[in-house]
Amino acid sequence: MQELFLKQLLAEHKNAMDCPSPEKITSFYEALLSFIFPDYGNEKISDGEQLQEKYDSLQNEWRAILNQRCKRMQHPEEAKASDLFQALEKIKQQLEKDVDAMYEGDPAAKSRVEVIKTYLGFKAIAAHRIAHHIYQNGFHLIARFISEYAHGKTGIDIHPGAKIGSYFCIDHGTGIVVGETTVIGDYVKIYQGVTLGATSVKKEDATTKRHPTIGNHVVIYANATILGGNTAIGDNCIIGGNSWITKSVAANTKLYYDSKNKHLQENSIK
After folding, report:
1. Predicted pLDDT of residue 138
2. What mean pLDDT is predicted for residues 141-170?
3. pLDDT at position 74
4. What pLDDT shows up at residue 43?
5. Which residues are 263's β-sheet partners?
6. In sequence order, which ranges of 120-227 are alpha helices (DSSP H)?
7. For residue 188, how many C-alpha atoms fall within 13 Å in the half-sphere facing its CB?
8. Is the dihedral of CA 188, 192, 198, 202 positive or negative?
9. pLDDT score recorded for residue 161
10. pLDDT tens for residues 125-138?
């Protein structure tokens, strides 16, 4: 029996996917984020030559990761391999807007440097902006390594497939869940414990829109739960804490849980 078991294990080892380790990928991610946000990391670059050397080194590291990718799980076009570095300027611009949103949206924030160095929300959205680009180019497993690394560090779980607009503000953040097919507009602010999830976890629904759509200028307070692919929250809505929502909410609506009467109260915002 033991001999048969070992034989089966040997076959599995031979067929195991040739993937770079999670540690290698997350180390690259941390170095890349520190490169585009010097205030995030500890490495300081003093001249253009040093900057170019670091840029080239990161590119080489990324190519090495892709050359070792899990070939049985993903087959993206080779032309997309260098696309991450071509998109770095855009990713940085997106993140600068997120930093502005968190700084302006939190009275406790004393500086943008504080947001970059200490805020869980910045750490989570930075990982997402980079992982989402990688995910869109077909490197799904590598993107998941980065998103799950951020999840472990921050307690914020954002699937790399989720689409998030500009000026995204996460306040406090712990316990937030954003599902794969979620779409979030611009100037959205969410608090701790918010779930943007699915009403079904059936495997046959994997290719469908399972998670909600959030409009522009929406605030979602702590522990609100919004579920379903057909659920849309309109522009300029305020969703109160502890709300449970499975149907769409019209634009310019304030929705909150009325604890006295035990139901959701809906008011128009003028």
Report:
1. 86
2. 97
3. 58
4. 81
5. 258
6. 120-136, 140-154
7. 22
8. positive
9. 98
10. 999 999 999 999 88
Distance in angstroms (rounded) separating the CA atoms of residues 178 and 121 = 13
Span 96-100, average pLDDT: 98
Q: Helix 48-67 vs helix 22-36: angle between axes, to the nearest 10 degrees?
A: 150
Per-residue pLDDT at 76 exceeds 60: no
Q: Hey, what are 38's tokens?
A: 């010097």
Which is it for strands 177-178 and 195-197: parallel, antiparallel or unpaired?
A: parallel
Beta strands across the sheet bearing 183-184:
163-164, 183-184, 213-214, 232-233
CB-CB contact of 128 with 91 (8 Å): no
**Whole-angstrom distance, CA of residue 17 vs CA of residue 13:** 9
Pairing of strands 213-214, 232-233: parallel
CATH topology of domain 176-270: UDP N-Acetylglucosamine Acyltransferase; domain 1 (2.160.10)
* Cα angle value 57/63/65 (rounded, 5°): 105
CA distance to 15, 242, 252, 253, per residue, from 269 (Å): 59, 20, 5, 5
CATH class of 18-156: mainly alpha
The residue extents of the domains of the chain are 18-156, 176-270
